[in-house]
Structure formats: structure tokens, C-alpha cells
Amino acid sequence: MSSPRRRHCRRSPAASPLEDDDLLSEILLRLPPQPSALPRASAVCKRWRGLVCDPRFRRRFRLRHRRFRLRHRRNPPLLGFFNRFDRLSFQPTLDAPDRLPLGPFPFQRDDGDYFVSLGCRHGLLLVFLPGILEVLVWDPVTGDRHRVAVPPVVAERAAKIGVGGAVYRPPGDVQHFQVVLAVTDDHGAQPRRALACGYSSKTGVWGSLISTPLPYQGHGSQFSAIVCAEDAVLAGDSLYWPLAGKLNGILEFDLEKQRLAVIRVPVDMWGKRERNGFKLVRAEGGVLGFLFISHSDCCAAQLWKRITGCDGVASWVLARTIQLDKLLSLKPEEKGGIEMVGFAQDNYVLLLRTVIGLFMIHLESLKFKKLSNTTTVSRYFPFESVYTAVTGIGGRNDASDVNAQ
């Protein structure tokens, strides 16, 4: 009598816990946030594919890994870089099987051709639309888009002289985002000043306009002081942009205190006659830093850090110098034209353009990898995010995934 019962148990669908869809979904949610994870799971069987193709599951997968990253300070995968000078074309960085192909995130526009990309952070990309004076926040993975009208005072200066911007997710919040825009105002008889204001997707409104005086600096430039439209650095509780034109320095926006300030630097950031290289970074320990390459020594990258002493006074210190020609084993004829063209803050990776191609360097380990043979002058924004396509690596998401977040 016992044998038939044992055979019946083996044939019963309830014999395996994995037959429970809810339990299996909880297990699949714990797959690593690598691009190959969900496509591999979807290939196991029709049932698994049905679970991971569900837009609700993919949304939970993204939110879970964002929360896990915030809680445990884990870095998201560096999927690649967006080329801001080539209509946001995509340069992948990962190796197989996680490598995405070229062009998995087409940036489609329906309101004109001209736009200015301002930065990328926390899986979101920020774009300024000068023709209609709006900013666009775009999630390339889900296709989700939010367009926000720019406040009039900022819009006026942004259209005339340019604007710096940043998008980020507040600490502990994995669903909402905030935008900060920064401009300078030093024309005519008005006081020279920098302006900034922030927007919250949670409230749907812009905050108060914040300003700070711009110190005079006889830099010899014919251009007004401007906030560079580069990817801002988020270090501690502040955002930072490099300033250019008549003023050599860094603009700081303290998110906690809602205060602007200008920080001087100990080097000639851009050079008066010869072009120097300058790139803001988040240095070891999460503090503000910058990389500097002098035209006179284009193979040496100096890493400076801003530290605060026990007396509360902040100062710059030279942390180390990286000999790029030796690191990359460049031949004498290959040493000229080294340029810093991008920086991934979470993964601490620098993107370099040389006369023989595009390289990325991990600044802590100094390990490097050649990404391509391109020598075209450009600027790149890093894309550090969780990728949830299940139709294959680099396959376009199903329509049901758009706006799932």
C-alpha cells in the first residue's frame, strides 16, 4: 500500500516548491542585476518566461535592486556611455554575455531636433529642450519620459548663455526624482551672480530661486562666466559643476541647506593659451575631487581632493598622479591628444580619448579596457543602471514595459 502513495507524491505538481508561481517569482527577483540575468531565466521554459516577461515583475526587479543598492551601497552595473555629441548614441562597456549592442536605447524626439543633454544619474538622463524651454527626464530602460517647463528666470539665461543641470533620486526614494538647474547672470548692470532652483517629481513644482554672488576674476576670457553643461558631480549632500569663461572655479549647490557657493581651485582649469583638461569627480571617501591634465604634461593626470581639517576649513590636496602613457603603454607617437571625455561616479571609472581609441580606466585598481578605435572628439555620459529586457541582450523592450515605472 505504501508504494502507490510514494509514486503518487512524485507525480503530484505540488511536490516541488518551485511549482508555486509566487515563490518562484520571489526567487527570480533575487537574480543579480546583470543584463544577461533575465534573458537566461526566460530561456529556461515557457513558464519562467511568462513570469519574467510580466511588466509588474520587471518593475519589482528594478525597484528591489535599487533599494538593495541604496541599503548596501552597491554600485549598479556600468552598462555603457551615451555620446552627447552624436544624438545620444550608446557605447557599451560590459563584456559578453552582459554586453549590450550598439544602439539599444534610441532617443526619439517629436518636438524639434535641437537639444542639450545635461547629465545622467540613477538610471535617468536629463535633456534641455531650448526650443520649448523645457527639460526632459528620460528612463532609457523603461522608456518613461517626464517633461517639465523651466522657470522663466532660469529659462531666459539658459536660452542665452547655457545651463548646467542634474537629475537624481533622493536618498531612500527609488520611484521619484529631483532636478536641479544652474545658470549665471552677469550681463548688463545687474550684479554678477549664479542662480539655481530644484524640481521634485513628488510635488510637481519648482522650489525657490537661490542665488550667490560671483567673485570677480580677471581671467582674460571674452566670454561671460557660465555653468558648464557637463555631468554634475554628486558628493556628500552637494552637487558640483565646473565654471568657465571669466571665472575659474566650481559652483556648489548644497541640497540639504539649499545654498549656492563658489569654490576656487588651485590650477588653471582650462588654460589661457593652451588647452588644459579638467574633470570633476567624486574621489575616494565620497569627497569632491577633480582630475587635471596640463597641456605641458598631457600624459600625467593629477587627482586632487578637497578635505576638511579638524578646524572645519576645507582645502585642496594633491592625492596622486597617474602616468597615463605608462599605464596604457602608449608609444611616443601616441602620447599626444589624451582627453578626459567622461566619468562614471558610482563605478569610479574614467573615460579617455586617445589617438588610438577610447579607453576606460578604473581609478582605484587602475585596470583599463579599450572600448573602441574611435578618435572622434566627443563627450560621454555614463549609464549606470539595472537592465531588464528579456527578449535578449540589447533587444528592445516590449511595449508593455514602456511607462511601467
Task: Describe the protein's architecture and organization.
The chain has 405 residues and is α+β, with helices and mostly antiparallel strands. The chain has 7 helices and 25 strands. Helices cover 16% and strands 36% of the residues. Strand 15 (249-254) and strand 16 (259-263) form a beta hairpin. The radius of gyration is 24 Å and the shape is globular. The N and C termini lie far apart (55 Å). It holds the Pfam family F-box.
Question: Could you give a short description of this structure?
Answer:
With 405 residues, this protein is an alpha+beta fold. Helices cover 16% and strands 36% of the residues.
Helix count equals 7
| Rg over CA atoms | 24 Å
- Helix fraction, binned, reads 10-25%
SS-based class: alpha+beta
Largest sheet: 5 strands, antiparallel
Task: Catalogue the unreliable spans.
Answer: 1-12, 394-405
Number of strands: 25
- Average pLDDT across residues? 84
Q: Which overall shape is indicated by the principal axes computed on the Cα atoms?
A: globular
Question: How far is it from the N-terminal to the C-terminal residue, by CA?
Answer: 55 Å
Our estimate of the beta-strand percent is: 35-45%
List keywords for this structure.
disordered C terminus; alpha+beta; globular; disordered N terminus; 25 strands; 405 residues; five-stranded antiparallel sheet; 16% helix
